[in-house]
Write a structure and sequence with these properties.
This protein is mainly beta. 7% of the residues lie in helices and 32% in strands.
Amino acid sequence: MKIPRWLGLGWTVWCAATFGTGVDAATRWHVAPKGSDQNPGTESRPFQSLERARDEIRARRKSGVGAEGGFEVVIHPGQYAVRQTFQLTAEDSGSATAPVVYRAAGRESPRFFGGVRLPRFRVTTDSDLLARLPESARGKVREVTLSDVGVTDVIPFELGGFSSGRGFHTHPVVELFVDGEPMTLARWPNEGFVKTGEVPGPLTLQAWDRRPGAPEGRFHFEEDRPSRWVGEPDAWLYGYWFWDWADSYEKIENIDLARREITLAKPWHTYGYRKGQRFYAVNVLAELDSPGEWYLDRTRGRVFLWPKEDRQRLDAELSVAPFPLLTVDGASHLRFEGLTWECGASDGVRIVGGEGVRFEGCTVRRMAGTGFDVRGGRRHEFVSCDVHTLGRGGFALSGGDRKTLRPGEHLVENCHIHHLSRIDHTYTPGVWVDGVGQRLRHNLLHDIASSAMRVEGNEHLIELNEAYRVVIESDDQGAVDMFGNPTYRGNVYRHNYWHHLGNWTGSGEVGHTQRAGIRLDDAICGVTIVGNIFHRCTTGRTHFGGVQIHGGKENVVEGNLFVDCGAAVSFTPWGEKRWREFVAKAMEAPAIDRDLYLSRYPALSGLSEGHDRNSIRGNTIVRCDTVFLRLPGGTEVADNRELPKGTEFPEGPDGRLRWSEAEASRLGLAGIPFRQIGLYANAWRFQRNGEWSLRVAGPKDARSAR
């Protein structure tokens, strides 16, 4: 049988997983949930833990017994409770020709579980507690005592957010999942936000929109609702306190009902506070007033839930592990195939340094933090993985050296990344990429409060990805966001499909229209955007287009298709004075080598000249309200075609464009490989009835693609 070239690697992997590899039985160990670490690790007498298999490999190496074909750990299906991080270090490395492989034994994914299952809930009858609940919830709220499931040490409630005084990083936090779905921590209002009233502190913080603010965490409230929160032991507010792109959680220190004033506990939000900003209350027992809401009483060690369905038994799980479930620190040439990490109260997998670590057909889901956190190293690869239902981002990916322009060559390909940013809503994208020379290809990203991608650094290739329903909440953002460094050069966005972004329906607060497909913010230069599709990326009355350029130059926007956007391309021109001041010392930054950069990017020799000069050419615009917004003089504009409103590229039932090869060819867009964009089928991944799934999956794996 002839195997298609695109399927070859995945086919090889699947055959290895199904029929075994060339690894000798003496260097292959088995792990199973009902095994024992006193066993020899054979298929009939397996180990119980990965630690035992790892230690056996270490012992073999120390005794001088190696394996030219590498070592292999075969992991049988079932749930493995994780009570400490599984740690791999440099001594656990394989080699390029003989990696150490941790793989699923068959088609069901082994599940490494950082939570506890909750037994049958009982109806709450405590009179003191019932008095604190809304009347509508009495008789409907159920409870579980944590000591009954062996949990005696509960993580304190403390969250951060972008610009939080508590720091912008993963803050471990307990979450409750029922039927695999995260429940909502008791909040008010149940949907949306309310607005801050007057800010009584000294209004010393000025802003470009002429709405001053105060550094002190105090504001007046206009509703009567906060009177219900007096006496709550751990009530917090989540909000956008100064800018609509800088969020944080703030603990309530005091509620003065006479003055109708809330005082927040220090440390305060680093940007300050001002009137008319969005917020809601969270972690408030008195607001447990709706099915699907829950609350953890840390003092009494009890979980309270108003279930969505009135069932005797609930499939309820509580995340309790305040650490990554897997760390790979300095190790190289490891492979993980068909495994699942889930239900952790922190990040999922962390990789530091090393080279050639590869994950295939793996799943990270239901974590409070980031799915895969990659800090440095080279050539780490994530292929055909599912990453979803996370409190923060999908991937944080850094590698390479900006000073020497040595590439990291990390790869994220054919990954399904969705339902993220549940806890920290901004700057927690599907993929945060930094450094030099990473590749993001054939991924599907959707349902993310933050961006699909945040890109920092040089010479990254982003191609053949599809992203929709992203940048849902924050403003002044893009499905891709880049910011603030004119020496970020050589980045290419090619043949991606960006659609249905932000507030594309125009509902809710119409002021929130500063969302773009690709956002080049504050002096980003030298980016190539070619052959992309921007479809419903912006709305009418928009400040942004499908592409938004804020002050940068030497960017090329060529051969793209813009359909049903408020504007195709928008600009925020800076002018000569602001530009020269901003870039005056850019080439002296210690992060770069001036001579190397001038050699690699000759245009940097004239960095201070030619402000706001970009090239917009050969693009096709269909059914957009306007082509350009705030087009600066000096911009090269050539061969762009605005077509009359008609039926070109209609939408299908799923909202995606109905692509016509004939129409694309007629309009000069034949070079856009539309049918190759997004996920592809291989030995790990298949599509059925429009939904993408992994072949190696758990019995309750979330599989929805759109």
